[in-house]
Amino acid sequence: MKEDFLHYLWKFKKIDFRNSKTTNGLSIEVKRFGVYNELSGADFFNALVLIDGQYWAGNIEMHLRSSYWFMHGHEKDAAYNNVILHVVWEHDVEVFNSNNQPIPVLELKNVVPASLLNTYLKLVESKHHFINCEHSLSSIDSFVIESWLERLYIDRLREKSMVIQEMLKHSNNNWEAVLFKLLMKNFGGNINGAAFLSIANSCDFSIIRKFMHDRDLFESFLFGQSGLLESEIPSSYEKMLYENYQFLCSKFNLSKLGVLPIQFFKLRPHNFPTIRFSQLAGVYKETSSLFSLLIEANTFKEIKEIIKVKTSGFWEKHYTFNKKSNKVVKCISDSFIHLLIINTIIPLKFCYLNYKSTVDTDPLLKVLYDLPPEKNSIVANFVSCNLKVKNSLHSQALLHLYQNLCSKNKCLQCVLGVKLLKEE
């Protein structure tokens, strides 16, 4: 059993208070259950309880056993002096606050319906391949699931916004600079994301923006800072890059300090950093106001028109500098644009709308509803539970659900878990 079961019982008033008494035999009646607190401090704030005919206003603290009060050091913490009732599953010791005053205790194990307890235990202790509710998930009404996934996705956007806000602080609120860093990270993907971001951070954006709309100079910077240029030049293109990079180093005093190594291992050729660098340079070559264009774009088609670019000519016949290949025009694929929309553009637009205090999430959500779901093992496992995953909003929400609730056994903080318990 986990403590969140006690929170569930209290929040949804599942306790049989008829003839209930505290552990020392005093009558008890809850007039106000209080406000659930997910941060530090007592579990429920501003409750009102009638104990033995006397009203008590304050907070409620919960533990599986009374002795956990001392295990957590609450008897030394003045912040818990306003606790008026200690609600436990099993009472095993009397408790006191830092003023050495006794705190009334309500034991729950004898006042909770056995059927409810059995249903809870069946949910959280059943054998499963993926998640606790995998055998029951398909029984939940689709409207409940849809509403919950939308809320989860908004929570995921808020999480991503915190990262963006931190980047804004370090960039003096320069949205173009933050967009560039986010794009660099996401063009690097899972394997090279940190390395690409380290290149973006190796030079102040005020310098980079001086040459980033000149494709040759920008490619020279990216390839040079990444360490992919050699002093022995095998082609005129690489010679041009090398000479440009030497010029940039001399003019702007560039440094590779803190730049992480680039990896090719385990990457498919179309995802090689060489190809991604050239494609990103192509994006900035096409416009001098990328941030404004993306903020104004509200559909996949509009975003695609901005980002759908190809590499420079050399990379049509190469994946690396030293080896020639058959000619292939290497445009940014639709699937890669999907990833950029999910991981960069939508979170940045959401953060910007918050900044402007004009948040209307409907256009943002519509873009995600129009994109196909992502393909990964977590989404595949939800599909195997007979859950319909129709779009990218669903897949993003399910990733958030699994990472924050399912994998941590927090069924009773999930609308779907609570729904299953209520139905039983």
Automatic annotation (TrEMBL):
Q: Which InterPro entries match?
A: DUF2851
Q: Which domain of life is it from?
A: Bacteria
Any matching Pfam family: DUF2851
Q: What is this protein called?
A: DUF2851 family protein
Q: What is the scientific name of the source organism?
A: Neptunitalea chrysea
